[in-house]
Design brief:
Helices cover 64% and strands 14% of the residues. By secondary structure, the protein is an alpha+beta fold. Helix 7 links the parallel strand 1 and strand 2. It is elongated, with a radius of gyration of 21 Å.
Length: 180
């Protein structure tokens, strides 16, 4: 159910923002809201509680967001809260971002290396990924000394593993398959 809730609300909000020409602004605002809702479980629980009336919840939303976000985003928060879906707000915001990135041709890529990448090498890798995947790349880097060497690139559920550890694991599996 959570999957369909986040999709329905995110798609409706995205479509509305497109019609109003504010998708980039809304994406930025929703990212901040996602962080707030993810970090403040008590606030989310309060907005989700059936024991608290909607008028009280709207006052809380007004104090936190009115005048600080666009009217469209504020109205969205009110609707989600009124419909008892405030607990899904962070997920809806993430789904909105996913839709925004698709529309903008942006792809988030996770790069894991055994040692930190130099800025020059990171820029070169990003440029190569952009030309290969034909998308604007937002690259997140991570260091995992357990890789021994090489690189792992992850995006859209795909994983390209050319790490030494990955090669050793594949070799072990082949040997186990021959011996077994």
């Amino acid at each position: 159910m959570a999957e369909s809730v986040k999709n329905v609300y995110a798609e409706a909000l995205f479509q509305l923002c497109e019609e109003r020409g504010i998708t980039a602004e809304a994406d930025e605002e929703l990212d901040g809201i996602r962080e707030l809702f993810s970090a403040n479980e008590e606030y989310t629980r309060l907005l989700s509680s059936p024991l608290v009336g909607f008028d009280e919840k709207k006052k809380l939303l007004s104090a936190a967001f009115e005048g600080k976000v666009s009217d469209t985003v504020f109205d969205f928060l009110c609707v989600v809260t009124e419909k008892g879906r405030a607990g899904f707000t962070a997920e809806i915001c993430r789904e909105f971002r996913r839709l925004f990135y698709i529309k903008q041709g942006i792809l988030e890529v996770s790069v894991v290396t055994a040692m930190p990448l130099s800025e020059a090498l990171a820029d070169k890798l990003k440029a190569k990924l952009e030309s290969t995947l034909n998308k604007k790349i937002i690259m997140h880097t991570e260091v995992d000394k357990g890789l021994i060497g090489g690189i792992i690139v992850r995006y859209e559920g795909a994983e390209l593993d050319s790490s030494v550890r990955g090669r050793l694991d594949r070799l072990k599996s082949q040997i186990d398959g021959i011996i077994a």
